[in-house]
Amino acid sequence: MISFEISQEQKQIMELACKFTKNEIIPVAAEYDTKAEMPWPIIKKAFEIGLWNLNIPEEYGGPGLDQVSEILIYEELAYGCLGIFGSFAGNSLALTPLLIAGTDQQKKKFLEPFSEKPKLAAFALTEPNAGSDASNVSTTAKKDSNGYILNGTKCFITHGGIANLYTVFASTDRSKGIKGLSAFLVPGDTPGLTMGKKEDKMGDRASHIGEVILENVRVPLDNLLGREGEGFKIAMKTLDITRPTIAAGAVGVARRALDEAKNYAKERIQFGKPIADQQAIQFMLADMAMEIMSSRALVWQAAAKIEKGEPDTMLSAAAKCKASDTAMKVTIDALQVFGGYGYMKEYPMEKLMRDAKITQIYEGTNQIQRIVIASQLLK
Ligand code: CAA
Question: What sections of the protein cross the membrane (predicted)?
Fold first, then answer.
């Protein structure tokens, strides 16, 4: 049996995140979207009240939250702004390989500084020719007696070029293909690591996405995560844990769009009465609500499995796919409820629709999620 009751503690943390979103994120979301800037003041405030680096365990100075609490917080943050949520989720994604495969010594060394002040981490897997085909990484890591020398270019990296710590996936033996990929911890100030192009995005604009260039970047042997050749599996296990985070963000966006559409429909008078009195609008709102409820149920289920120590590849992919398709559909329909006003920048709908699109793409396109689901089904 699965209980969908959340504990008193989880309720409190959700309320804290909801208040934080209302007071700190919603009032400035449009401004960050226009300027496409990193939300530093928000990150600092979140850090002060324990809403930053949600996945760092208490023993390394972090909040040590359970997975369901994390999901509840992420939904609230994305309700305020998906781009601002992106920074929180980007850090969580980048630190997950360390949590999965790091030794106690590595965790102490690399996680504790994140608990001392707000810092950025970046998950550097994607390359120009290794997007959906994540195994096709051409970044190399050559071993010598002192450590590894990394060379290559990573693209579409959250916090790329501005992070304090990178989890870099590189090939230690190209002849072995997937089994030659390895994961490395690379401090942001390592000589040879530089920022390439900062991306100018359609939506999700408050999160920084950039290219990372690695030119003879030298790291000690101790910075290898797990063993040589385990990189691909570490990356996949990471995504099993983090895809529900993206899904929670997508639910937040969809919920916000429904709330905006609901409120507008009650106020907008046409044909002498609020458009909410029209069954055509009511059906649209009802469909949106159903999609959101079913998406959230999947997200919670995926999070509960992770919390139990049993991340479920199919469930995580299904949650990400379903919730992001929901975010896209709901934002399109909610904008339709606004009619012409929805299309104007003065109203929040066009931003929500632009933001929703990325949730169907990042952390694996929804076509990849369907491949993952089908391959688990047919196993
Ligand atoms: N857990 C553990 N092991 C796994 C696994 C998982 N979830 N998935 C695959 N593996 C293992 C397999 O068991 C297999 O190992 P063996 O050979 O020992 O059996 C090995 O990995 C290879 O598996 P596949 O044959 O399934 O690999 P594939 O090449 O066919 O690719 C894929 C699988 C699902 C398509 C994968 O490449 C994928 O997920 N691609 C999408 C990548 C992605 O999501 N990128 C997002 C980057 S992060 C981002 O977007 C955020 C940002 O910063 C903007």
Answer: none
106 burial type by CB count under 10 A (0-12 exposed, 13-18 middle, 19+ buried): middle
Report the Cα 143 to chain-centroid distance in Å: 32
Identify the H or E element spanning 270: strand 269-270
In angstroms, the CA 93 to CA 96 distance is 5
**For the CA of 232, the nearest atom of ligand 1:** 21
How far is the C-alpha of 307 from the C-alpha of 115, rounded, in Å? 22
Decide if 247 contacts 295 (C-beta within 8 A).
yes
Report whether 171 contacts 139 (CB < 8 A).
yes
pLDDT in tens, 350-365: 999 999 999 999 999 9
Note the pLDDT of residue 345.
96
For ligand 1, the distance from its centroid to the CA atom of residue 238, given in whole angstroms, is 10
State ipTM. Answer: 0.97
Which atom of ligand 1 is found nearest the CA of 156?
A: 54
Q: Provide CB contacts within 8 A for 177, sequence distance 6+.
A: 135
Give residue 1's pLDDT: 46
Give the domain-ending residue among 206, 229, 252.
Answer: 229
d(C-alpha 274, C-alpha 272), whole Å: 7
User: Domain range holding 290?
Assistant: 233-377
Q: Pick the last residue of a domain from 190, 205, 229.
A: 229
